[in-house]
Amino acid sequence: MLAPGAQYGGSLTSQINFISLALALVLGTAGLPHVLMRFYTVPTAKEARRSVVWAIALIGAFYLFTLVLGYGAAALVGPDRILGAAGGVNSAAPLLAFELGGVILLGVISAVAFATILAVVAGLTITASASFAHDIYASVLKSHKVTEDEQVRVSRITAVVLGVFAIGLGILANGQNVAFLVALAFAVAAAANLPTILYSLYWRRFNTRGAL
């Protein structure tokens, strides 16, 4: 765990995987719904730019903080204890908190993690359901011939469907490395969301059908 090149420096394929992962984490940040939602929560374009800068800065700080958590857990807790815990590698941060501050810090970290997960899931659900109701159902399927009540109803149904689907995926992903799942989400954002945003800004002939 204290040898950074052990996993990604063994072969050409692993080196390419490392470059791909780095690109996904960097480019995926610009396509995350958490960042894109900043444009809809401010009154002016100037405030939107400032809000996005703050969001990206906080995400970047979080990236750097994960390095501290990882190396700190490896040095203070130890790889054997982490791998032997109930959550495996996913329990590194809670074990580090317990090692440094006992049950009090462990409780704080657990509460922060739960609040973060709840906020992210809520934000993604709202964004996905609203996007489907407005961009796909109203614009593509109904050609803008819908009322606001219909869009709200479709948005609510979409939120329920997405929730059930997400729960199913969560059950299937039980035991997976959280870092891998996060990297997968960033890869999807970098491969799908970011190109759509860039094409919309700089390609005049880009349309809804091309995005889908």
From TrEMBL:
Q: Where are the transmembrane segments?
A: 18-40, 52-74, 104-133, 154-173, 179-202
Q: Which Gene3D superfamilies match?
A: Sodium/glucose cotransporter
Q: Name one GO cellular component term.
A: plasma membrane
| One Pfam family from the record | SSF
- Per the UniProt entry, the signal peptide is none
Q: Does the keyword Cell division apply?
A: no
Q: Which domain of life is it from?
A: Bacteria
Output one GO BP term.
plasma membrane acetate transport
**Protein family per UniProt:** Belongs to the sodium:solute symporter (SSF) (TC 2.A.21) family.
Species this protein is from: Mycolicibacterium conceptionense
Q: Where in the cell is it found?
A: Cell membrane
GO MF entries: acetate transmembrane transporter activity; symporter activity
Q: How does it sit in the membrane?
A: Multi-pass membrane protein
Write the record's keywords in alphabetical order, separated by commas.
Answer: Cell membrane, Membrane, Symport, Transmembrane, Transmembrane helix, Transport
Classify the main location. membrane
Entry annotated with the keyword Transport: yes
What protein name applies here? SSS sodium solute transporter
Q: Which InterPro entries match?
A: Na/Glc_symporter_sf, Na/solute_symporter, Sodium:Solute_Symporter
